[in-house]
Specification:
467 residues; alpha+beta; Alpha-Beta Plaits; six-stranded mixed sheet; 11 helices; 17 strands; elongated; disordered N terminus
Length: 467
Amino acid sequence: MAGNEVDRAAKGVPGGRGTDVHPPRTDGTPAVAMNALEERVVAAVAEGRDELVALARELVGLDTTARETGDPPRDEDRLQRLLEARLRSIGAETDLWEPESTGSGNRHVPDGLTFEGRPQLAARLAGRGSGRSLLLNGHIDAVSAEPKELWSSDPFAAEVRNGRIYGRGAADMKGGLAGMLFALETLRRLDVRLAGDVVYCTVTDEESSGAGGWAAVRRGVKADAGVVAEPTDFDVWVACRGSLTPTITVEGRPGHAEMRQAHWRAGGAVNAIEKMKLVLDAIERLREEWRGRPDMQHSFVSAGDIVPTVIAGGEWEVTYPASCRLVCEVIYPPGQVDEDGTARGLEREITETLENAVRVDPWLREHPLRWFWDCDVVPAEVDPGHPVVATALAAGAAVGRAGSITGFDSWHDGATFTNFGGTPSVCFGPGPADTLHTIDEWAGIDDLVDFAAATALLTMRWCGVAG
């Protein structure tokens, strides 16, 4: 690491704090005193505040909202080419590519997804060859801005007010991407020569499946450690949960809803919606069991859960429904991953538990549940003692943003780089996560400035500065 490792009160380094003041948090995280070069870098980031804001606003202004399979591309290509041009201008070797269709047989990505018009980007800033390499990663896609009429301003205008940038993707996570890039640009402008390589990688599809991160791993994107710019409020997330998305269909038998029906064995109608209640009851019992089961617990994330999220049934208001369909979100901790890197064991448990529960009903015993399992989005964890964790925390503390080690109850692309790419990856980013996916999503400008400064310090200390 650059600098002397000495304890220091978290006084904070000028990062342009004004309207959006966040007092330093004091959780015992040791701050590492900055040397003269690091102080110059942090000061340069602060001086470039307006340029950083302009970059973040430009990214937010491009519509890269998540899409259903088969939808046309939006502004993904424009955004990636914008980033590529800036990275090339500071000497990076860039790789901008549209991956081949994901095809079938891979349970981690959806069948039929194509990347036409939605490229992935990896850029390498070569070091002097004597330091550790660092991956700086983020996703360019954002969730839908609908209903747009509820926003206080156009979600793609990136309006600045009260020390914040408002717009879809400002927090999740174009503000973080802008901060990472501006950190690298600042290092280059000050002619800071790193000993190790830096890889800046931006991907699509994190909000829907994680297919972009998977494509980057297959492309060979990796480093000694990785940092994902999710909005952690300067904490370091060392763990995240994974997810399965089963669709369960209950079969019924149509009939006139206003006419008396015979017993179903005599050809009478069967109400699929009413039969689905047995499934919902079984899910609730399983949820309660998981909440107290030791193998579903984890130090940094919540216990496993299964949440019904979509239900649909029926064809006509005076007809017994022929079927009822239920979609669930299954969220599970890292301990549920099998040796083959999947959650097949958990999938079997859910299937067997629900099927056994509904067999008490004669109709469902003879008309079994139908199942469809979408992608298996696998969780991950990084050892809290990994040196990248301490390096990130110390960098945040050095700019007055002392954080702590924690986890994320949802999922992020760092899990793919950790599990399948050989790059242990944590999340470290600006601002709180409570604005994610909300109306009037925002990123604090002071947060972005301090994050860019912290990223520059993290990069210097992890990769080393060449003499």
